[in-house]
Amino acid sequence: MASVVPLAYQGSNTSASVPDWLNKGDNAWQMIAATLVGLQSMPGLVILYGSIVKKKWAVNSAFMALYAFAAVLICWVTWAYRMSFGDKLLPFWGKAGAALGQNFLIRQARLPATTQYHSDGSVETAVAAPYYPMASMVYFQFVFAAITLVLIAGSLLGRMNFRAWMVFVPLWLTFSYTVGAFSLWGGGFLFHWGVIDYSGGYVIHLSSGISGFTAAYWVGPRLTKDRERFPPNNVLLMLAGAGLLWMGWAGFNGGDPYTANTDSSMAVLNTNICAATSLLVWTVLDVLVFKKPSVIGAVQGMITGLVCITPGAGLVQGWAAIIMGVLSGSVPWFTMMVIHKRWTLLQKVDDTLGVFHTHAVAGTLGGILTGIFAEPVLCSMFLPVTNSLGLVYGAKTGGIQVGKQIVGALFIIGWNLVVTSIICLVIKLVMPLRMSEEQLLIGDDAVHGEEAYALWGDGEKYDSTRHGWYLNDDTVHPTQLQMASGVTQVV
């Protein structure tokens, strides 16, 4: 009996679902890359956030990430995608519109929506037309938007009013993320000017670091005792979340050529080289200065390496990725461990996970280093703006590129400082940005009516008169301690 292959699985141009422009390999890689980036947030950062905080904040921290991921998706397809990648409204902003209709989603992807021309009429910055549908592009760009909000949450853990966070997410996505994305990626003025941001060093990491720090200022600090002692409740689970973050970065940087080509392979390899180098450098510095290797420090070094390579992942050679890793493992370490402790402003703002250092500092560093090390042949494979190269390969043109990178960073910093402040002040008119003192003392049980761990029984609330053990999660009073039977004692 002859088998009949359904039309959807036949060769190109044989059915409506397989148009002649579709490349199934590129489409498969783009959806896989998007899913890898999605896994960085859900469950990667959900697990990392829920594990790296004091146990009374495990549920709240994980939930902030989970909520942001879901809320961004609905806003993205309803209006924000086209504000980021649609027709120009302003030089830094696109026109709002839905990305939900069949006619829009099944047509060939196009990005950006505008073409840049030289004064003689020849094309300077062309419109890219990947060989897959707009649905794949909308999905891919969504996960980048989502992780940006999740990263901002890292600065606000342990005290932000959850209802205020629910309002903050769509407002910041609309008035901040879409501006950065359109300006640098979607056909805005920085894109056409030739500022290089391969995969989000500015759009995602610099913006989240600056906005997280700014929002942390307006929300206010954690309780004093939480700032003084904030131990992770589960280091091994924290490492699991960090591992998902690292491996997911293959989709983060490998998917941005919008095709499964040689440049995406370079990007994935460089990403891992820089992350590994940065982790090792950070660990060595911890050993040399503090005499102990810290696993949390190693995770911070891994993150700064991933962030630093992002704006130039497919544009630099392997030896440059190592240099970038050395610098990303040392410069943010220095700002976090030395400058932060000596600068009153940095100490005043309670940035819970140090997102300013790991993302804003590392993202700016990566953007400038990209202007130095961007290799012209690799640039020609990726950048639509002609004659792009780094300072190492041409003093005049490369010097101009470094200047462009600095200007691009300053625009992102300035916009996010102002807009994030306005958003926080507007929300504050309606509801408190910070939890109540009672909620801050109790944590998850007061805020959500849920707790991450019930180690003393079948879900009942902790009762020191029945179970003994600790009076709270960070203080032991030996004279009042009654050890529960059967528990291993540390003498």
Task: Please describe the structure with a list of short key phrases separated by commas or semicolons.
491 residues; mainly alpha; two-stranded antiparallel sheet; 19 helices; 4 strands; 62% helix; 2% strand
Binned, the helix content reads 55-70%
Number of strands: 4
Major beta sheet, specifics?
Answer: 2 strands, antiparallel
Percentage of residues in DSSP E strands: under 5%
Task: State the secondary-structure class.
Answer: mainly alpha
Report the mean per-residue pLDDT as an integer: 89
Count helical runs.
19
Radius of gyration of CA atoms, rounded to a whole number: 24 Å
Q: What shape does the CA trace take?
A: globular
How far apart lie the N and C ends? Answer: 77 Å
Uncertain runs? 467-491
Strand order of the largest sheet: 1-2
Order of helices and strands: HHEEHEEHHHHHHHHHHHHHHHH
Describe the structure.
- It is a single chain.
- The chain is built from 19 helices and 4 strands.
- It has 491 residues and is an all-alpha fold.
- β3 and β4 form a beta hairpin.
- It starts with 23 loop residues before the first helix and ends in a 24-residue tail after the last helix.
- The relative contact order is 0.13.
What topology does this entry show?
Blueprint lengths: L23 H29 L5 H28 L2 E3 L2 E2 L7 H4 L10 E2 L5 E3 L8 H20 L8 H23 L4 H5 L7 H19 L4 H5 L6 H20 L7 H29 L4 H15 L8 H25 L1 H5 L6 H19 L2 H7 L12 H36 L6 H6 L1 H4 L16 H4 L24
Antiparallel strand pairs: 1-2, 3-4
Helix pairs in contact: 1-2, 1-4, 1-9, 2-4, 2-5, 4-7, 5-7, 5-16, 7-14, 7-16, 9-10, 9-11, 10-11, 10-12, 11-12, 11-14, 12-14, 14-16
